[in-house]
Specification:
Blueprint: E1 4-6, E2 15-17, H1 29-43, H2 46-50, E3 54-63, E4 78-87, E5 92-99, E6 106-113, E7 116-120, E8 124-125, E9 133-134, E10 139-141, H3 145-156, H4 158-167, E11 172-179, E12 182-191, E13 194-201, E14 207-215, E15 227-239, E16 245-254, E17 257-269, H5 282-291, E18 305-307, E19 311-313, E20 322-326, E21 329-333, H6 339-351, E22 358-363, H7 373-378, E23 382-385, H8 390-400, E24 408-409, E25 414-418, E26 421-430, E27 433-441, E28 446-448, H9 455-468, E29 474-476, E30 483-484
Parallel strand pairs: 21-22, 22-23, 23-24, 28-29
Antiparallel strand pairs: 1-2, 3-4, 3-17, 4-5, 5-6, 6-7, 7-10, 8-9, 11-12, 12-13, 13-14, 14-15, 15-16, 16-17, 18-19, 19-20, 20-21, 25-26, 26-27, 27-28, 29-30
Length: 485
Amino acid sequence: MRLLDSRALSAGAFCILTTAFGPAAPSSRTAAIAAIDTALARMGSMDSLTRIERVRFDMVTQWQRTTFDARPYRDQPSYEQHTDLRDYTIDAWRNTRRFGFNASARSFVDVVRDTVAIRRSEGGSGGVASAAVVAAGKWTTLNEAYVQEKNELFAIAPERLLLGARNASDLRALADTTIAGAHHARVTAMVNGYRMTIFLHRSSGYLTATRFRTAEESDYGLTPWGTMDVEFWYSGWRKSANGLVYPSQFDVRRVGQPYKRMTILSAVWNPPATPDSFAVSDSLRLAHVANSRRPMHDVSYDSTTLLRERFVTFNAAGAPAGAVKIGSAWLLLEAGQAPLSAQRAVEHLAAIQNGGAAAATIVTTPATGNGGVAWLTSHGITVHVAPGAAPFINAVLSGHETHGTKPRIEPTPRWIRLGGDSLWVEPIDFADAPGAMVVYVPSLDWVYSGLAANPVNLDRVRALVRARGWHAARVGTSRSIVGPL
């Protein structure tokens, strides 16, 4: 068994999930059922949990930026208040979401009914989640990713997780393990399409966590990671007036890092059924099937634009920041959100006027995204990576299990020869992004760094240009490929 390092989920908390003591115990359905029955009893009783058909949660979600930086509190969270209404009997979910805390706060209503997702629009385009342009208040389709989110949330709900595992034909016990020094039972079963490993505290009997692997190929933010490890941790157990004991805190980790924290402020069990809350018209159902069952990043690159004969912008969600022609070869700037994003960018570079092959890619941003590296390396395109971006790129390649050209980490300044010309790459530390990178092309009087779209970071780039004595009149960022420095 391999060692899994589970980092702090809240201030002052630190968990280590280690290998089990001794050899694995023989598989035993009886032992697994006993551990699950204890956990069900701690929550109330199997009968009371089986009778949960509907629930309404008032919640706060703290979205956390994925980072591989060891320093604490680097996640730069954002907050969402929402009312989560579920009807398990009809496989339906209504999520009323509120972002912001002032007059500029926004609100959405998302409904997922079995395999179809819709949203009540604020007006205009919903971006990658719902690309159609509609009037305010009108219902429109949501991407397939929301169906997968519903399936996942329903699967990890503690009562459904435990009952689903108990009833699974493939339920079996694994060897016990320790978490933060505490003895835990482990059981595994297929629950709602997910191969779960469930951790149950031996002393108290409570559910501690569940772990599985999945690929979120339709989700814009998660697709870069490919097939990833996902963990849900349960804490803050509270007793309701009806005697049900339920966790109020759900901590989610993906690719080994904190992803979000969901806190239940209040819960109503088996509220009156409200079928109209989950209504989906036949026309919306057909529209979802026709338009929303492809990944969020699967968009047209037909708006690709050539600027000043040397610079390209792709003008598509998830695309690389752009490309620049160095001598006779194209240099792709950042790798794009997903493998498909990089593939389409390279294809369009070859198709434009005075086009040609992409010879290399530069990744200057130590941040999420850049899932396109998986496609680029598998097709022999050299990828130069800023030192701070290396952990992100390693996670991407691990999730896609590709075999090809290895990325080249650039820890020190140096010249790179490309297309008969040269570019200079140099690491730079920004305030919130150490280990970023700057690219300088003397023949184009141009300097680039993806994160220089932030004015604070742009000041650092300008200072570097002055300190090095570079003749750079133009600057490129992830938002604007070429502009005055």
